[in-house]
Each structure stands twice: as C-alpha cells, then as structure tokens.
Design goal:
Its EC number is 2.6.1.17. By secondary structure, the protein is of the alpha/beta class. It is about 40% helix and about 15% strand. The chain is built from 14 helices and 13 strands. The strands form three sheets. It has an eight-stranded mixed sheet, with helices on both faces.
Length: about 400
C-alpha cells in the first residue's frame, strides 16, 4: 500500500460524526442542517431535459478533452464573465468531471517529488482536498493563515522567503471556503510577483464565484486579474496559472459532476496527458447538459437572488448573538462563537442537543500554523436549505445563545 495514505487526516464530516456520535438531538424539533455545503435549490428543468435528450451518447466513448461544443461554450462563458480577450477553446480549456477530482489530480501533474523538500501552499482554513492532493503527490502541505483584518484573505506576506523557495504549487480558493473571502487585485499582484520570483504554479479554485450579493458586481477571478495586470497576452498567456470552476453551486447540479479548468495552455497540455491515463473523460450526456447550463444565465441570477434573500434575513439575526458578517461571496457564514464561552466543538455538540441544528466546527477545516488554528472558536454555516429552514435555524441559534446567558 502507498504509505502516504496514512498521512491523510479524517475528513471534516467524519470528525463531526465522531463528535456527535453520543449526542442525542432534541427530538421535539425537526432537524436542520447547516453542516454540509451541498446545494439544495432545485435543478433547473432545462438542464435535466438536456441530459435526458442526450442519453443516446452513452453508446460512445467520450474523449478526455471533451467535445468541441463544450469547450467552445466554456471559452465563451469565460470571455463574458471575466471580460477576457479571446480564449482558445482547444488549448486553454479542459472539461473535468467536477472541480474536486480535478483539483486533486492537478497536484499529481504539477508536483515534482524528486526535488527535495517539495511544498504545496494552501489557504488556512481550507478545502481538505488540497492537503490530500499535496500529500499523495509526494509534497508537504504548508498553510497561509486567513487574516481577519482583510475579511479572511490568506496572509501571503507572512510566509518566509525560504518557504516560498520550495513551494511548487499554490492553491487559492476565491471566494473562499469557508470564509467567503475574495482576493483583491492587489492580492493577485502580490501572488503573481511571488510566482515570477519562485516559479510555482497557481491553482485557483473558483467554484463559488457565481454566488454573490450585489448583482452586476461579481467577484474578481484569477484569469481576470491576470488580464487586468497584463498577464493574458504575450507568448505565454496566463503563465503558471489555471482556474477551476464547476456547475455544482452555480446551477444546482452537484450530482452532474461537471466543471472545467482553464488557463496556461502548457500546463493544460500536460494535465490532459495525465487525465488521458487517469480516465477523466466526461459522460457525453453530461457534456450536453453542461453546454445548456453554461449557455444560460437566467437560472444563475434566480439562484443568486434566492441566496441574497436568505442571507439578508439570517445574517442580522445571528449578528445579535455571534460575531458574524456577510461574506464577500459564497453561501457560508463564518461565525465566531467566542462570546458564548463555548469552543467551536462544544457549540456544535450542544446546539444539536438543544436545538437539533447542525453546524461544522471551524477547527475541523484548518490546521495549526504559526501557533494557531485559525478555525478555532468559529463555526461554518451553509445556508443551502430552504428559506424557511434557514430562518428557523437562525432563530434556534439565537435562542440557544441567549439561553447560555
């Protein structure tokens, strides 16, 4: 067996299951879960129709590179969404079977474990796939703690120069999970300068990019930042930079397993080679449904408006009893529970027992770095349920906190 498998930590939800194993929820109240970030809004009918209408495609083996139609519609979406110059659908776009597996596989392509002391830098707190990808690629993960003073953007300036010198890959999540932080243009300028100096690759996870709170003011993306900073032209456009996106949150189709990676053509050429052996081809019917989804924005605006309404109702209520504010983007609230006198794990266990509401302890989403766990004493709340459930859950949390005195 691969001995590096033993380096993997339990997934946050496994830790949560163990924490709550002996907790008896309040049976007088129906269960409400803010724990798992799984979209609960209904899948648009036109996507399901496009999927079923394309089932004849199951008789054919799909190509790893995906259909021309899918790559072209993704390239067109990138140009519209991020005001990019022409995106080459043949060389700068690659469909993937969900951003999760692609984020993992990308590290296996990029990391050269034969170089001593290989490092992969991750935000902290973070999506645990980054850590697992680094470990199984033969590297060691290191962490850039979130900075509460900058709405939880990673503090890249606190990473020592001798650490940067060994970093081969940097994972960025913007909007962030769990914090909702969006990197600014200055953040990207700093990270690009570090990449130029040290030669590392940047993988930007942007699966929450289409859930934001001011229509017409979408979050800045990595390729957009590169374009605005003059890095999208020349002989090597988007050099050492790729971004990942997905239909799961945007279109409420997490079961479709459809996303893409876009950016540096040289990196994507190697990634396609890896995926050809890895077996990463997308189901032909899923490709057809994906074309329909990427080509439509009306359902995305409706989806976004539903989240805006929920956050507008829930956030002020919770702010009465917890230190919490509207994130930059995404569908999580990142709440500090310190004023309750409980740790994040105590808060989660007692909230379930007394109010039958599930939240995820923030310490499970982070690692200790620079002497602190930046998720400690925080909880992540995913506002993915119906508006009524989200409002009721918030009211129960308020009641729980007030009962603590």
């Amino acid at each position: 067996m691969n001995p590096r498998l033993d380096l993997l930590q339990p997934y946050p939800f496994e830790k949560l299951r163990v924490l709550l194993a002996d907790v008896k929820p309040n049976g007088a109240l129906p269960a409400i879960s803010f724990g798992i970030g799984e979209p609960k809004h209904p899948t648009p009918e036109f996507i399901k129709t496009a999927l079923s209408d394309a089932l004849a495609g199951l008789a054919n083996y799909p190509t790893t590179a995906g259909s021309d139609a899918l790559r072209q519609c993704i390239a067109a979406w990138l140009q519209r969404r991020y005001s990019l110059p022409a995106v080459n659908a043949a060389t700068q776009v690659l469909p993937v079977t969900g951003s999760r597996e692609a984020l993992f596989a990308f590290a296996q392509t990029v990391v050269d474990a034969s170089r001593p002391g290989a490092l992969v830098l991750c935000p902290n707190p973070f999506y645990q796939i980054y850590e697992g990808a680094a470990l199984l690629a033969g590297a060691t993960p290191v962490f850039a703690n979130s900075d509460p003073a900058r709405n939880f953007a990673p503090a890249f300036d606190r990473i020592p120069a001798d650490t940067w010198a060994r970093v081969q890959l940097v994972y960025v999540c913007s909007p962030g999970n769990p914090t909702g932080a969006v990197l600014s243009l200055e953040d990207w300028r700093e990270l690009f300068a570090l990449s130029d100096r040290h030669g590392f690759v940047i993988a930007s996870d942007e699966c929450y990019s289409e859930i934001y709170f001011k229509e017409g003011e979408p979050p800045l993306g990595a390729l957009e930042a590169a374009h605005r900073l003059g890095r999208a032209d020349g002989p090597h456009p988007f050099e050492r930079l790729v971004m990942f996106s997905s239909l799961s949150k945007r279109s409420n189709v997490p079961g479709l397993r459809s996303g893409f990676v876009a950016g540096d053509a040289a990196l994507l050429k190697k990634f396609l080679l890896y995926r050809t052996y890895h077996g990463g081809a997308m189901n032909p019917a899923v490709q057809s449904a994906s074309v329909a989804a990427w080509n439509d924005e009306a359902h995305v605006r409706d989806n976004r408006a539903a989240y805006v309404r929920k956050f507008a109702e829930v956030t002020p209520l919770l702010a009465e009893v917890l230190d919490v504010a509207l994130p930059d983007a995404g569908f999580y609230l990142w709440a500090d529970v310190s004023r309750t006198g409980l740790s994040d794990t105590e808060f989660a266990a007692r909230l379930l027992a007394e109010q039958n509401v599930t939240v995820l302890p923030g310490s499970y989403l982070a690692r200790e770095a620079d002497g602190i766990n930046p998720g400690a004493n925080r909880v992540r709340m995913a506002l993915v349920a119906t508006p009524g459930e989200c409002l009721e859950g918030a009211r129960r949390i308020v009641a729980f906190c007030k009962a603590l005195g």
